[in-house]
Write a structure and sequence with these properties.
The protein is mainly beta and 277 residues long. Helices cover 4% and strands 22% of the residues.
């Protein structure tokens, strides 16, 4: 697992930095664990654009990931590490003794042939890939794929190279330091997987050309100051004009570029101990 650079024989390759895919051990996905994926172009069921800068992209199949890890107290063997076009992280293919196979997010330092387990109501070895409730994890443990509601599956800390850390436990809650630096409380009955998400070098990769970004389904983003006044609050003016607002705003007038938009009376504010700022 690593990254590679290229000789600048073309303008694209001068700055290109890409993964070497040395950790990938299986080229094609498991047929029983893929589903067709339709493109939305960022549009909702009424045809209106609700998420900008989405369109095109290479044709993909969705890999069904086991975020719940609800096959308890049964050891599974890692039989492959695969590329997933739908996420920055790699995925690991597990096989259980009854020959059932499932995908999970690939943790760093988990190798093909290793055996991992998801415990229901007990503590297991603190090694990458093992899953258990937060109340059984020692302080200082690095974790990922963290649940916010017990039994619903992990939704936090799933991107390449990310990790959270168990800082403290008190009154049925575990205090976790998130990748953003925020410290928040999560119920001890929620589950998480031990270890840091693999493919740590993802943040060092450089696409090298605009076309590779389009392959990922990301369309160009245009500055508000380059638009007309009808399209953006920053638009208009003669020549290259300033934004004209007291503070930068979105196309719909909400503060942006660091402006706080979180509701001050949001219910979950009480679970945040320390803001990421």
């Amino acid at each position: 697992m690593g990254i590679k650079t290229f000789n600048p024989i073309t303008p694209t390759q001068r700055f290109k930095v890409s993964p070497d895919f040395s950790e990938i051990s299986k080229a094609k996905p498991e047929k029983s664990l893929v589903r067709s994926l339709r493109k939305s172009g960022g549009r909702n069921n009424r045809g209106r654009i609700t998420m900008r800068h989405i369109g095109g992209g290479h044709k993909q199949k969705y890999r069904i990931i086991d975020f719940k890890r609800d096959k308890f107290d049964v050891e599974a063997e890692v039989i492959a590490v695969e590329y997933d076009p739908n996420r920055t992280a790699r995925i690991a293919l597990l096989e259980y003794p009854d020959k059932e196979r499932k995908y999970i997010i690939w943790p760093d330092k988990l190798n093909v042939g290793d055996k991992i387990i998801s415990a229901s109501e007990s503590q297991v070895d603190i090694k990458p890939g093992n899953c258990m409730k937060l109340k059984y994890m020692p302080l200082g443990t690095l974790i990922h794929n963290v649940e916010m509601v017990a039994g619903r599956g992990g939704i936090l800390v799933r991107s390449a190279g990310s990790w959270a850390q168990v800082m403290a436990k008190d009154k049925g809650f575990a205090q976790l330091q998130m990748p953003s630096g925020e410290i928040r409380m999560v119920r001890e009955d929620c589950r998480a997987t031990v270890g840091q998400v693999g493919f740590i070098e993802h943040s060092s990769c450089i696409s090298g050309k605009a076309g590779r970004t389009r392959w990922l389904g990301i369309k160009p983003t245009v500055r508000g100051g380059a638009m007309n006044p009808i399209d953006h609050p920053h638009g208009g003016g003669e020549g290259k004009a300033g934004q004209g607002n007291p503070h930068p705003v979105t196309p719909w007038g909400k503060p942006t570029k660091g402006g706080k938009t979180r509701k001050p009376k949001k219910m979950s504010n009480r679970f945040i101990i320390k803001r990421r700022a």
